[in-house]
Amino acid sequence: MRDVDNPFSPSTGRRCPEGADEGHRQRRLESFPRAAAPLLGFARLLRRYGLAVAPEQISNFMQAVTLLGPRSMADIREAALATLAPPPDRRDEFEAHFQSHFYDNTSAVVEGDADEETRIKDDGGADDERTETEQSQEGGELSSALEQLSTRDFQRDDDRLTAFRRKLSAALPARRSFRTVRTPSRGKLDLRRSLREIVSADGDVPSPLLRRRQSVPRKLLLLIDVSGSMKLHTADYLKLAHAAVQGADRAEIFTFGTRLTRITTALRIRDRDQALARAAAQVDDWDGGTRMGPTLLAFLSVPRFSSFARGAAIVILSDALERGGHGELETAMRRLSARAFRLSLATPLASDPRFRPATAALRAILPDLDDLIDGSSVKSLTDFILSLARPAPAASTIWKRVS
Amino acid sequence: MNGTSAETVATSPEAVAQHLAASRYLADDSLATAIFLAIRLGKPLLLEGAPGVGKTEAAKAIAEFLGRDLVRLQCYEGIDAAHALYEWNYQRQLLAIRHAGDHEIDIYDDRFLIARPLLQVLRAPEQRVLLVDEIDRSDHEFEALLLEFLSDFQISIPERGTIRAAAQPIVILTSNRTRELAEALRRRCVYHWIGYPDAEREAAIIMLRAGDVAGATARAVATAVQTIRARPLAKPPGIAEAVEWANAATILEKGGSPWPEAFRRAIGVLIKDEEDLSYIAPELGRIVEEAMG
């Protein structure tokens, strides 16, 4: 297998000089068999487009091609799929790059845009290069949203958010984990450590060591409506989301309007202005309509996302003014409610004392909600999220009493 | 077949596909190629896909055609080294200390070591197939622990030193993709995404797996299941459910229910979510009739 004359020999593949300086790389490249160049070039192309390809994977790719013959281009494609391992949601992109690199068919590379389809944007694993491209494509709407973020003064809200960030982790509802921690009293005997103590004390029996199951904060999931009707509140919500990601161990943030966008990774940046600018650049359905039902169903259809909802405290920040029928919204809320530890809807409309859940959509989803609260200010939202661990009567009970 | 090396059995993707078929597992070219490459490159195979597409079954079929024992490690949230690698039998150690009195005993002797799946695989004299099932359910820390094992096929036990694999195991990891796996894990593996099979392949799988199902029934089930999967269901039916549906409907039909009615009555084995059932119920008759036509 390690034949030096074989252009796809594994030993030549291992010489792949990733990480070396450009000149060094060039010299090494010249020493490569010419037939290996397209394979190397393909791996580099993928890397340029933000797909993570490790040097080890390139050498595996070459070995795989050798093992398969290759008898046809299909073998090279299979070898690339198996060893370079593109994530399933980027398979189309991978295929397009394969077509463009090996068949010179560049038309496939241009990304199609599904207008009415609910698309899901996930920034997980995006690299700097991709972020830069996205930032350079900011439109007018986006800029105005950014401007709004930077110019409005929320000094008092800022103090509240700082306090919120500090208190959040301890305030979230907790669950008991499988993991155990040492405890001075009220626990089960930790035989592993106790035995070590006994052995080190030459057989004397010291006081037994105890362990008990650890208590871990539940996950917090914020789903933020960025449609036109929520325009006034979006900036506050994003600031709140940033504080939540910074303060909680496990928080996930999504925005939705006509599409679903995951912005958690962007909000992990400590500097708030930078984080919000990056998050704002990722969302491309600012101030549009709301397709809450289909977007929430899209959220539930991605196993990685829907599993995050399991056992989590979910807060939806929206006025729930759904465009079109509310059948899908009802289904989505029922499924979310079945997964969640607590499902809450915070609507700015509830700040009006005359507010009642009277729209058909709200009436339909009310039985699935644990809380329907005022989402008009940072104060009401932070107070509410910090009280999530305390039990409260279901939303339908409260609103039946009021109306 | 235990004596033959895996490489001599897996001579080409086609040979792998044939062996799998003999083990009653129908793999497409892509999966057969990934399995072939994993065996020949000596890399772990990472299989991802929706629940019910046959990831675990693939591992069982691989173990069967290679003639190796399958050791399965089911992952869950909170799984740690004591569950996956080894544990000391503390009760026995304590008893041994008490009985020993003034004599010296080695409490880290083999007698006191409980081998968990990973250690079992390393200590086995022959090559084993190790299935690490649903790795996406475990914590990130466990994934990191597994990385050490997967790269060197060895375990360090502080009291005993390092134990290396007598025969490098064939490792298959499965994931339902409920969370993103670490890049470090993905790049150590040969990767394959298993999708739902097309209607033709699914009909063939049903024929192979179900007990006594007619060809026409299998084709109708496969077609109907494809249509049902295209709906936005909370739990889309897997291949195993499709096989069960074909079986159940056949039994009902032999018991006297006419065909479309038999399918409708057996729907509970295909769709196991009350909400999905009420969603699909109004359309079910039409879907079945179209599939049978």
UniProtKB/TrEMBL annotation, chain B:
GO terms for molecular function: ATP binding; ATP hydrolysis activity. Pfam families: AAA_5. It comes from the Bacteria. CDD domains: AAA. Gene3D superfamilies: P-loop containing nucleotide triphosphate hydrolases. Residues 41-195 form the AAA+ ATPase domain. This is MoxR family ATPase.
